[in-house]
Specification:
The structure holds 3 protein chains of 3 kinds. Helix content of chain A is 57%, strand content 11%. Chain A has 21 helices and 12 strands. In chain B, the strands form 2 sheets. Chain B has a two-stranded antiparallel ribbon with strand order 1-4. Chain B has a two-stranded antiparallel ribbon with strand order 2-3. In chain B, a hairpin with a 2-residue loop joins strand 2 and strand 3. In chain B, helix 5 packs across helix 6. The longest helix of chain B has 31 residues. The N and C termini of chain B lie far apart (43 Å). Classes of the chains: A alpha/beta, B mainly alpha, C alpha/beta. Chains in contact: A-B, A-C, B-C.
């Protein structure tokens, strides 16, 4: 065996790589794949070295300065990152790395291209302490409600907003926190080398950091650490292989070892596209322990059954006044108006393209309100973003199921509970029962109907005043539809105003107190189910669909 | 005044090459919604093989060009078979990571076999004299390159827009699930897309070599990143966007070098990228997802 | 912490701190670790080999340097061993690839030092050397570099770093003086690669300082003409050069780009004399630029045509190994370094069995004491900081033909 761990420098860079991987993990757990990490490391390294060499600060203030500087640079980056998604984000952050490097090369105050040297040396011990603290800190962060929100954003940003998560704020916090951590790593790196130069922090480093996380697996804290460890170890060991006197073909102190590394990267992605440690793999190791913990927590919540209802008894729950919406030249909604009272079920009917889902999206805040006004109880929803509306009491499900797949059923529900704010909370046990799956199951392992139930449970968990259900019965069989109808009635009896969009007209007509019929964006009829069944205009506009399914 | 016109002209000629490279990235992203990070290395490898062959065999220029195109296309196909297909179309990040792996394989194989020294194959590439038109100095080679690039760009666009296969490609881009239902083999289209895209990278490499006669085994990363930046500036998946951005960047760089921005020169594509993304989060001609 | 249960965290933290404390123990005085290794290797029969570390790039950006240097060091060791070795001990190399990466250079230097080598040869680039030298000042294993042109870096090694090559300043001092004299240059245009660290470092510091010292005015100090590594089109760059009036051009860039610039200069009819960067003295530049390289002055630390039997034998031997100079002229420096180390060790009566700490200290002192060592690159004497006072050879390339240019 080649004992590379004897080597002080190897140990240092191993821990350094684990620390930067951890910084990346914090950012990427919100789904923001950043290639700007080397830039943040550079800023931290330079800030730390500057206060060290020029001002003679001791270690801890140096690291704090590094964290602060990296965080400061990260703030505008985080705001910019919020405007773009996916590959645009990837390229934009890559640009950050390059711009930081070039800027530092031109900044004579920090030595320009010559760099800085003469930092107080610090070694493996300091690095290990910082890494240990960082692991504890990130573990705490990820287990906190904020961490839950971060991981929800990773799975589905729109759904997270609909679940009451301020996606913008959380994403900004993640970028800044990850940058601060990476900045500290950079400062320690500078102190170990006693020398830094801008090109030590190039695009290559950013790519390496991303690979540690993506190879290791992003759905667990252990993933990035394992990824960084394995990659660093592998490359070092291959470099030492020739000391065994292998034939020249197997001389890996050559480009071959990087080619092998490349091949392994491809193989890992083919076999485990989400990285070596997927959440399932980690969880199965810890299942027994977790179950015990879960039971403790569940029973603690069970004691808090709400003694009072959170909804008002009278007035209107939601007022939709003159709402219009256009997609380019296409009119999706035109002057739509209706009111729904607490403890009332209103079904929206209409053929495909009548504007039902558009209306729900406008009410929930996923689409901007172009014309008209929306009032929730006495509050104007106006231009409030989706997550604010959820917190105020407008909750929704999506036409195509959107649960947080990498979160457990229990976590999905808990996320909903957080949006209840100061309204009375429904008991967790009851909600989990509503979700119809074991709380520790990963949501993505459930069937489509199972996921739909989890989504409904999550929406209900926020103790909404108005609940918007978009096609909740899709894919359900007779028995499940019956249960759904019962549930919706039960929710109404809690005082929730339910807006139901469903292709199953029987279900809609069966449980709704009132029906609103849309046709090409216009309300063409409104009334109790029996009246609607008899309405001529409705028959004319909508007979086909109604006839078939009724 | 003439100096500005000459700079503009230089930028246009430089941009044509950029545009061709960006086109090869964009084709892959536009059709498959997947990012390939190996095209810089494919560009390098295609040029390297062609030039080494030219140096050893002394074959005619056209053969050298064909070698570059064939090597590029083969490596494009290899990207599909080795990186994309094992991962699956629905996993864009894993697929992109796999192409990083493939890029490492190509680059390091080249380094292992060739070392880091530049391969110089076409010592006297095209014995064509420069044109002097009034105050302007025009390279016939560059004009030739510009013409080929223009023809290929228009051709690629027309192919994607008009031909049966091109339509299938666009159908794949629109709705990957629908294609098998229409009886169109998805696998064949992804291979075709990557073959064309790889061939474009190979051609771009050959056109650069026509002027320089050389390729460095290390050229892949730098040029690949510039190609990516251009694709992003133009708007992911937009072929006209890639061309506009490529030529735009060529002109900006030409002016920057004629004004002199010192060490900030290397940050130009990236600064441009950040600026464009701040104004237009989906690039110049990109559509919101 | 959904994943790693909360209760594991303290254990992880503890384990890390513990590991670090352990490391603090062993990493302290490197010499003790080294000693342990050397007594272990001294045990087996006739005579233990003198172990030297070679820390070079066998992958990455500088792989071509690494491959040539591996050959030239091997050649030197072969000759020494054939002639009886170092006081009867054979020279043995431990080679580590630093991949052009400063991090790996530090890890490699540590590794070699821990293995008990008497000295480390390498690393290749200034970036790697600078960080390795900082380690040398702590671990006290002599490190000898035959490449890396950045000014003042040997000082970081606090006496343990030696550089047998000329710094940019030294090279340009000779080159600019001779160039100015030959072509009566008073003013010059500065052109450089802004992305490549070696070139941009030289262009931003050494060149302006030296030019000022020798009385050349750089007309565009405030607005240097720049381009990027890997750039393939130099039309605009040369256009701007043409539009800048001065007596000559100083072009600081790697060989490939220099070759392309030479061609573009010829195309646009630019004929002013040029001073290049020493790295351009390579086959890539000559092949790339071809006959279009004109009035191009290059400094170098090695002249393969020098009339000296040792040089002739070196060139012939390297040719046999398929390494024809001047691919990497600096390989000659490493050949000299191995020979020099062997001589100092021999004179100090050191062999493979000698205590590592003593061997390293004696080697260090011996190198400083060396006066006018007759290397194939010229006479070598180390200054107090560990830099060598090198002979700088000047060449001028005209129509692709390389000729010596008298100083």
């Amino acid at each position: 065996m080649i004992d590379v761990f004897q080597n002080d420098a190897f140990r240092f860079f191993l821990l350094f790589n684990m620390l930067v991987a951890l910084g990346m993990y914090v950012v990427y757990s919100t789904g923001q794949l950043s290639l700007g990490q080397a830039g943040f490391a550079a800023v931290g390294a330079y800030a730390g070295s500057y206060v060290d060499v020029k001002l003679g600060w001791p270690l801890v203030p140096v690291l704090l300065a590094a964290a602060a500087a990296a965080a400061l640079v990260a703030i505008p980056v985080a705001f910019g990152a919020n405007r773009v998604r996916g590959l645009y984000l990837l390229m934009g952050t890559l640009a950050v790395t390059e711009v930081v490097r070039v800027s530092l090369s031109n900044l004579d105050a920090v030595g320009g291209i010559q760099g800085i040297h003469g930092m107080e040396p610090s070694g493996v011990l300091e690095m290990a302490v910082v890494l240990a603290l960082a692991i504890v800190g990130v573990a705490w962060l990820m287990s906190s409600p904020l961490g839950l929100e971060m991981r929800a954003i990773f799975d589905d940003e729109d759904a997270a907003a609909a679940a009451g998560v301020s996606t913008r704020t959380v994403k900004i916090i993640a970028v800044v926190a990850g940058a601060a951590l990476t900045g500290i790593a950079g400062a320690l790196f500078a102190r170990y080398l006693s020398f830094i130069r801008p090109d030590l922090f190039g695009i290559g480093l950013s790519f390496s950091i991303a690979l540690y996380v993506l190879i290791g697996g992003v759905h667990s804290l252990a993933g990035p650490l394992v990824g960084a460890f394995l990659i660093t170890y592998l490359l070092e060991v291959l470099n030492r292989m020739q000391q065994f006197g292998l034939p020249p073909v197997l001389d890996f102190a050559s480009p071959w070892r990087f080619a092998i590394y490349g091949g392994l990267v491809m193989a890992v992605m083919a076999v485990r596209p989400e990285g070596l440690l997927t959440r399932g793999a980690v969880r199965s190791l810890q299942a027994p322990l977790r179950r015990r913990l879960r039971r403790l927590r569940t029973s603690a919540h069970a004691a808090a059954i709400p003694a009072r209802r959170w909804t008002a008894g009278e007035g209107s729950a939601l007022e939709v006044v003159g709402v219009g919406h256009r997609f380019g030249g296409l009119v999706a909604l035109e002057d739509v108006a209706f009111t729904i009272r607490p403890a009332e079920i209103v079904a929206l009917l209409g053929a495909n393209g009548a504007g039902k889902t558009t209306l729900i999206n406008v009410v929930a805040g996923r689409l901007p309100l172009q014309r008209g006004s929306l009032r929730l109880a006495r509050t104007s929803l106006g231009r409030l973003p989706a997550h604010r509306r959820t917190r105020l009491g407008v909750s929704r499900t999506f036409q195509s199921v959107r649960v947080f797949g990498h979160l457990t059923v229990g976590e999905n529900v808990r996320l909903g509970l957080r949006a209840a704010r100061d309204r009375a909370r429904l008991p967790l046990e009851w909600l989990i029962e509503l979700a119809g799956a074991p709380p520790e199951a990963l949501a993505r392992d459930l069937t489509l109907v199972g996921q739909r139930r989890v989504e409904i449970a999550r929406a209900v968990a926020s103790s909404p005043l108005v609940l918007l259900l978009d096609e909740p019965s899709a894919g359900m069989n007779e028995r499940e539809r019956g249960e759904l109808a019962q549930l919706i009635r039960a929710l109404r009896d809690l005082g929730i105003a339910v807006v139901l969009v469903d292709h199953n007209v029987d279900l809609a007509l069966g449980i709704a107190d009132r029906i609103v019929v849309l046709d090409f964006g216009l309300v063409i009829a409104e009334g109790v189910p029996d009246a609607i069944r008899r309405d001529e205009r409705v028959r004319a506009a909508y007979l086909g669909t109604m006839g078939r399914s009724a | 005044m003439t100096e500005i016109a000459q700079t503009l002209l230089n930028g246009l000629l430089l941009g044509a090459n950029y545009a061709l490279l960006a086109l090869s990235y964009t084709l892959v992203f536009g059709v498959l919604r997947l990012l390939t990070l190996a095209h810089g290395q494919i560009f390098m490898a295609a040029g390297l093989v062609a030039l080494v062959a030219a140096d050893r065999q002394g074959q005619p220029l056209i053969v050298t060009g064909l070698v570059a195109i064939v090597v590029g296309a083969s490596l494009g196909v290899a990207t599909d078979l080795l990186a994309f297909r094992p991962v699956g179309l629905g996993r864009p990040i894993a697929a992109a990571v796999a192409t990083i792996g493939f890029a490492l394989v190509i680059e390091n194989t080249a380094l292992q076999l060739r070392g880091s020294s530049t391969a110089v194959g076409l010592r006297e590439p095209l014995p064509a004299p420069d044109l002097v038109l009034g105050p302007f100095l025009l390279s016939t080679v560059q004009l030739f390159i510009l013409a080929i690039a223009a023809v290929v760009m228009v051709g690629t666009n027309a192919f994607v827009d008009r031909s049966r296969w091109g339509m299938a490609m666009r159908a794949l881009a629109e709705s990957p699930r629908l294609l098998p239902l229409l009886g169109i083999p998805v696998g064949r289209i992804t291979v075709l897309t990557l073959a064309i895209s790889g061939a474009l990278a190979g051609l771009a490499s050959f056109l650069v070599a026509l002027r320089n006669g050389s390729v460095s085994p290390l050229a892949g990363t730098d040029i690949g990143l510039v190609g990516l930046a251009i694709m992003t500036i133009g708007g992911l998946g937009s072929l006209p966007g890639a061309m506009v951005a490529g030529i735009g960047l060529g002109i900006v760089e030409a002016f920057a070098s004629s004004i002199g921005v010192g060490t900030f020169q290397s940050a130009i594509p990236w600064l441009l990228l950040v600026l464009i993304l701040l104004v237009r989060p989906h690039g110049i001609l990109g559509k919101p997802e | 912490m959904r994943e790693l249960p909360r209760r594991f965290v303290p254990f992880v933290a503890f384990a890390l701190v513990f590991a670090a404390c352990q490391s603090g123990g062993t990493a302290g005085p490197a010499a003790t670790t080294g000693q342990a290794v050397s007594t272990a290797t001294a045990a087996p029969a006739p005579k233990a080999a003198v172990k030297l570390g070679v820390l070079i790039d066998l992958s990455g950006r500088f792989i071509s340097f690494g491959k040539d240097i591996r050959e030239s060091t091997a050649l030197a060791a072969e000759e020494i061993n054939k002639a009886g070795g170092v006081n009867g001990s054979k020279i043995e190399f431990v080679v580590i690839d630093s991949a052009g990466d400063p991090e790996k250079a530090v890890v490699g230097y540590r590794e070699l030092s821990d293995k008990g080598v008497f000295a480390v040869l390498g690393p290749i680039s200034s970036g790697e050397a600078e960080v390795a030298y900082a380690q040398a000042s702590r671990l006290e294993t002599p490190i000898l570099t035959g490449t890396a042109n950045k000014e003042g870096i040997t000082e970081i090694g606090k006496g343990w770093a030696f550089r047998d090559t000329a710094s940019n300043t030294d090279l340009y001092k000779v080159a600019l003086l001779a160039w100015a004299k030959k072509y009566s240059v008073k003013t010059a245009v500065l052109v450089f690669d802004a992305q490549e660290p070696v070139s941009s470092a030289a262009a931003k510091t050494a060149v302006p300082a030296v030019a000022k010292a020798v009385g050349i005015t750089i007309v565009n100090n405030d607005a240097p003409i720049t381009f990027n590594r890997g750039q393939t089109d130099f039309t605009s760059v040369v256009q701007r050069i043409k539009g800048t009036p001065a007596d000559g051009l100083i072009i600081v860039t790697a060989p490939a780009e220099a070759g392309l610039i030479a061609r573009e200069l010829a195309r646009q009819g630019e004929t002013r004399p040029i001073v290049g960067h020493p790295a351009q003295n390579s086959s890539t530049f000559y092949e790339q630029g071809g006959v279009q390289i004109n009035k191009w002055v290059l400094p170098s630390i090695f002249d393969p045509d020098r009339n000296d039997p040792a040089v002739k034998s070196y060139v012939a031997e390297m040719k046999q190994r398929d390494k024809e100079p001047p691919t990497v002229p600096e390989a000659a420096n490493y050949y000299d370094i191995v020979k020099m180390v062997a001589k100092v060790l021999t004179d100090a009566k050191i062999d493979g069995g000698t205590d590592v700490k003593r061997a390293r200290a004696d080697l260090k002192n011996g190198l400083f004491a060396l006066k006018d060592y007759p290397g194939i690159g010229g006479k070598i004497t180390f200054t107090a900081t560990g830099d060598a006072d090198k002979t700088v050879y000047l060449f001028v390339v005209n129509g692709g033909k390389i000729e010596a240019l008298g100083n």
